[in-house]
Every structure is written in structure tokens, then in C-alpha cells.
Amino acid sequence: MRIAVAGTCGLALIIAREIHEQTSHQLLILSRSHQPGLISQGYQCQVVDYNDPTSIQHSLMGVDTVVSTVTGNAQLRLIEAAVACRVRRFTPADFEGRPALRIQNDPLDRGKAAALALLQHYRGYIQSTVFICGVLYERFSVDGMISHRIGVNTGFANEGDYILDARNMTAQAPVYDQAGNMANLCLTSAYDVGRFVVRALDMPQWPAELSMCGERMSVTTLINTVKSCRGRDFNTQWHTPDTLRYELTLAQMAGDIPRQRRLFTLIATAEGRYDFATPAYLNAQFPDIRPVSFRDWFTRNWASVP
């Protein structure tokens, strides 16, 4: 089976490496620019111009499945080209919470809704699924998930941008939902996302959503886990959706766009947008995949930081 991975961000390369090393599928990496480093490692790469439908269609000849990590208009053109080339399956760049929990005119959308709408429009011609993994562990990485080349354009990919700053031990904690219950979230390492995605390529049928989870926990447990790993106390501001919306109003009045983006992610967390039922679908389907725990991942990632 010929699989095209669109994009060369950190997550794309994790998925590509897993296909390359663990399956007999033919792998093609689509990139906007020449990739001599990847080619020297034995990967087949194709330069693609997302502004040119002919270029995209040429790159998709003979492809069975597209795994996309490109967003916005580039992804919409990729979907159109995949349909034109009779590609059998397409999975969009999503890799977050369940789409049904997102709000209208979502400030965190980045073209996701348009991609899902287009795939729905073409559902008679191409199969698709959304991979749901919650929040990537890498958001809590030393130097942020941007250091893994993940979420580079999101506006909340730097160290300390989401919930907690493990270096300076400060936290903006969305611990309660609107009803006053503890807010929960599901988290997964990018490496385990790659393993689950690649295993799912061989499933005979794809449901509309395929969920996976490294660990489900409350925001309070997340903070306490990092506190325990770091051996230091947090200076924490505890939040409800209402207090976060008040903070958002202040950020809007001040014209502070980066702070607004960070607050949108905290509000989404408090509202349960990164939470879903566990055991997740793919965990149940593939029990031999044992995801790394958040504590083990964090301990390793922060081992060199005093």
C-alpha cells in the first residue's frame, strides 16, 4: 500500500518513521521544499506546490492513503487533489480533542472545520477519519513543543504557554468546569500517536473518529505530577471558565494577542474539549501498544533541567 504523509513537521516525521521502520508499506513524504536530509536517510520525498492542483495530483498518483499534517488552504487543495486522484483514504491534520466539542467560529480552528466539511462533502468518494489524541505531552516539553517542530504556527507552542511553566514553577490552572467539577484532559505522547496512527492504516474500516490516549487525568493531577517530578512547589492561579473569560476580556482590552491565544486553550480545557472516554478506541483495538505514562515521559524530558 502506498501511503503519503503530507508535511515535515515533528509529528509528520514520527508517523513517517514508524511507517518506514515498522511496515512494508511504500512511503512518500510530501514537502514544500527539497529534503536532502530525509532522502539521505532512505526516504522517498516529493516536492509539492500546494498552489498548483496539477503538482499535487502528480504527487498523489498511485497513493492509497494520505496522512495530512498541513493546514489551511494547502490542506483543502490536498483533499481536492486526493479526490481527483481517487485516493481511497484521507486523514486531516487534527490530532486534538473531539470535533463535536468545538465551538462555532472557534478561535483555535486553524482551518480544521473547513477540512472536515470538505471531507464530509466528498464522503461518497473518499474515506476519512479524525485521529483524536487530546493534548500532546510535548506541550510540556523543555523548550516547548516548538522544539519538536510541532505546532509551530499555533501561537502556544513555546515552553510554559499551556497550563504550567515547569522551569519557573508557575501555573494558570483551569481546574474546574462550568458546573464546578474537576476539569479532565486526555494526553498522549507524539511517539505513541505515531504508533497508533500507523497501526490504524491497516484497519479494514475507518469510523468517523479514532481516539487514542496515553493517560487521562484531572488538571490538578497534572500539576501535582509535575510538582512531584520537579520536587518544587508551584505558584498556581486556580481558574474556572468564568475567571478565564474575565482574564480574556482584560487581554482583549490590552490588545494582547499571544495572551488571548493562551487563554483560549485554557478555556477549551476547562470546558472539557480535550477530554474523552477511556479506554480510547485504538487502545482497546491494539492492547499490545502500551503508551508511555505522562510521569515517565516528563521525568525523562526534564532530567537535565535543575
Shape: globular
The beta-strand count equals: 14
| Major beta sheet summary | 6 strands, parallel
C-alpha termini separation: 47 Å
Strand proportion: 15-25%
Total tally of structural domains: 2
Structural class, please? alpha/beta
GO molecular function: oxidoreductase activity
Keywords: NADP, Oxidoreductase
Protein name: NAD(P)-binding protein
InterPro entries: NAD(P)-bd_dom_sf (IPR036291), NmrA/Isoflavone_reductase-like (IPR051609)
Describe this structure in words.
- There is one protein chain.
- This protein is of the alpha/beta class and 306 residues long.
- The chain has 2 domains: 2-128, NAD(P)-binding Rossmann-like Domain (Rossmann fold); 137-186 and 214-274 and 292-301, Alpha-Beta Complex (UDP-galactose 4-epimerase, domain 1).
- It contains 11 helices and 14 strands.
- The chain has a 6-stranded parallel beta sheet, sandwiched between helices.
- Helix 2 (36-40) links the parallel strand 2 (26-31) and strand 3.
- Helix 1 crosses helix 6, helix 3 (53-59) crosses helix 4 (72-84) and helix 7 (219-230) packs parallel to helix 11 (294-301).
- The radius of gyration is 20 Å and the shape is globular.
- The mean pLDDT is 95.
- This is NAD(P)-binding protein.
- GO terms for molecular function: oxidoreductase activity.
- Keywords: NADP, Oxidoreductase.
- InterPro entries: NAD(P)-bd_dom_sf, NmrA/Isoflavone_reductase-like.
